[in-house]
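Ticket closed. Logging final result for Helix-turn-helix domain-containing protein.
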Amino acid sequence: MGASSRVPALQNGMRILRHLARHGGPMPAAAVAAELDLPRSTVYHLLAELERDGMVVHLPEERRYGLGLAAFELGTAYTRQAPLARLARPLLHRLVDDVGHGGHLAVLHGREVLYLLEERAPGSPSLVTDVGVRLPAHLTASGRAILAQLEAAQVRALFPDPSAFTDRHGSGPRALSALRPILVDVRRQGYATEQGEVTPGFGSVGVAARDHTGFPVAAIAVTFRQDVVGASEWPTLATRIRQATDELTRRVGGHPAPSEPPVL
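Final structure:
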C-alpha cells in the first residue's frame, strides 16, 4: 500500500474515532458509515484495524462499536501533561484555602486514577494521593466521579470481570453489579464520595471536569478526616468543589455534564 492510499485511510480512521467520541456512546457500523458518508466495507475494515489496536471495542451482543481502552489512554495522556495541571493549579489552591482541607487533581488511566496535583491545607496530614501515585479508580472519589460520566459500555470494558476489582482495606465494590449503583448515585447527586476505602478514617468528595467532547477529563477531590467533617456537610463541600471543576471545564473548552442519569 503506497503513501497516497495510506493517508486517506488514516484520515478516515481519525474521522471514525472523532465521530464515536462526539456521539457519546457505542454505534452500529452501518450508522457510522451513513453519517460519515463512507462505504460500509471501508468502515468495517477500518473498525477491524482500530479494534486490533485497542482504539475501539466491539460489543457483539449490541452489534455496536465504542471507544476502546487505547483511545482513553491517548485522551488521558494529554491531561497528564503540563497544560491541564497549570490550568487547575490556581483553582485547587483557592479551593483548599476556602474549605481548609487538602485537595488533589486526578485523571483516569485505565482502571486507575493518576494524581497530577496535590495541595495540602495548613496542618492537614500527609495522604497517599501524592503526585504520581496511582490508585484503583473504583475506590476513590476522583475515580468514581470520572467513571460515572462514562457510558455503560465503557465502564464494562474497564471492569470486565471480578479480577479487575482490587481492594486496599477489604472494602469497596468487588463486582460490576456493586459498582453500578455507586455510579448511578454519583450521577444523581452530582458528586462522588468514598469513606475510608483508600485510607481508613478519611473520606473524600470529588467532582469531574469535562472537555469539549463531554469526556470527563479529570476530577478534583477534597479529602478530610471523617470525624471532622460529618456527612451532612458533604453536599456543601461538593458545591464548592463543583465551582472549581466548572471553572476547569470552561478553561479546557468544555461544557457542563448532562443531568440525565446513565443507563447502567
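Confidence is low (pLDDT under 50) at residues 1-5, 259-264. No further action required.
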